[in-house]
Amino acid sequence: MPSRLAPPATPARLAAEVSRPRGIRPRMYDRGRTRRTPSSSYFGEMHDERPPHRLALGGPRPPLGKRLRPWHWVAIDGAVAVVLGAIVLRAMAHLYGAYNPHHLGFPRPSPLMSALAVLAVVTACAGLVLRRPRPSAGAAALWCGWTLLVTVAGRYALAVPAGTAMVVAATLLVYQISATRPLRWAAAAFGLTLGSALLTAPLGSSDLQQGAVVCAFAVSVAAVTGRLVHRNRTYAAELRRHQAALLHGELTQQRLRVAREVHDVIAHSMSVVGVQSGYGRFVIDKDPALAAEALDNIRQVSHDSLRELRGLLAVLRTTADDGVAPPAPGLADLGPLADRIGRAGVRVDLTVTGDTGDLPPGVALAAYRIVQEALTNVVRHAGSATANAAVTRTAEVLTIAVRDDGPGPSGHTGEGHGLAGIAERAALHGGRVEAGPAEGGGFLVRAVLPLTGDAR
Fold it and tell me: Its catalytic activity (predicted)?
């Protein structure tokens, strides 16, 4: 019985299985290629934010936020930290003199207490600057500043504006970590910030405790928002990778289609030319007329193959604006194909049953190429004088059978791509192929292509 050839794994199926490499964590700057520069040796592993179309000539100009480099963002954070620190320190300097506003009972701070409070504010602002390049260091700086402020100056009035700076820095830092780092980092930053705020209850004034409540709310909102942004960026990065994999698979399939078409045209014509040239050399001394006939056959086959190649190149060069592409060969061209095979020394008995005139062009081309490749294999390997090619169309399937009366499979190593190309063509249309020794001798190639939808 003929052996069934399993449909080959298509490139699209392989490309769809492309997954993200392990160990690669999604980061905020996932729109460009990671690189290290002299500045990144200090700021850590910085990611190029520039999108791919930024470097494309004539591409759309991205918005300002997309054009900024990582060090630009660090500079912006530094400017925010300087402005925030200046405002807070000015307010603290005022409260150092007017230490008990509204007569709420705040004690007078000592110069050492005031200096430590200023140091806490500077430490928190430094954590704000480090939130992008070194989030862990920024979180540590903010936690140290908050702890120092609460334990040393929590009962003083100047701690209230300093606490405002802590709330702003903590909100921005928690958002940054939640948006760019894994969940465990975000949870750790959120828990550390809330734990620091709890120190206000036993050590801070009532005004500072109210600021801690505001801090807990703001940090919670920042954490949730950051995780949503992180998820959207991760999804966008995965979608880009998936689209790139699909594009790669589509391009691979296009290359395979071109390779199959070129193989079918070249292999068929070269097989006929090889047989005819050998025959012509054999009879050139005995019967020059037969040698001249062989040369005529070679000329005709070469002309037909060149015409098919030109048609194939025209299809490849045709775009949507160029109009209609040249027609591809179909079942109506099986007669001339049988004549060319006959001139190569193998008589072909061709039978076409059923109405094949309304077949889709893709199915008709696949059937033609299957018959062409099967007959080419007969010429090259079968050592047979005759071959039978039958194409039968029913309401549901198109059956193609090519059989020769040769001795069957020989010692041929099968290094060519003939049967594999036949199986690929059938698989593209949901069909199957069986190839093997036929009952009663010879070799049989049988393909079944299902007809669905408009093909019926």
Answer: ATP + protein L-histidine = ADP + protein N-phospho-L-histidine
